[in-house]
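Hi R.,

Here's the chain you asked about this morning:
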Amino acid sequence: MSAPRIHLDATLTTGAELTLPEGPARHVAAVLRLREGAALTLFDGHGREAAAVLVEATRKRVVARIEAVTAGRGESPLAVHLGQAISKGDRMDYAIQKAVELGVAAITPLYTEHGDVRLKGERAAKKLAHWQGVASSACEQSGRATVPTIHPPQALGEWLAGRDDALRLVLHPATDTTWQQAGEISSAALLIGPEGGLSPAEVDAATTAGFTPLTLGPRILRTETAPVVALTLLQHYFGDLG
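And the predicted structure, written out as tokens:
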């Protein structure tokens, strides 16, 4: 059985002893019920991970000693930036979680015409921190050592203007499959609309920005299911699922 994986925003140095923050410490001691001598894997979220052993594990304090530091594994050669229309509640969490498991490099939550979620001020900051936590947990589960950045929500037009990825796809009914013959690419942008879909004007804006329509078959997928299917296709053709 592999050692539990814990994301720790800290410098990983062989021989160092690190006191785990409250959240990870509670997970290790109270949820996993690990004790002194137990092995675990720490990763810094920036591509490095460490084999560690617990030297103290109490309700008040959990300390791990780093035995060895290595480069993390599990990163796809294809860096996909997902532009995901914001959806309510658990749907957005699900989309982020599965996208991270499928190797996404970055996610930008998007405001769209048919989207009905608008975030401001403290609520926006709390939601962004929550989404980043979802990404971190997905890395712990999936074996990634690099936590994708969840960017602050943007208007769709702003996000489109900043995209220069080698391959750009927008989820929209189409018959053109030439994107599958794009050859070797290292970066891609994927745009997923809200439950009500993107408006005609938004689809036009995307195609003007160099996005090719992508269809995912004859059935209509939920906004949280669509990125799972689309990312699987991209990883199959250009990443590490082929």
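The chain has six helices and twelve strands.

Let me know if you need anything else.
M.
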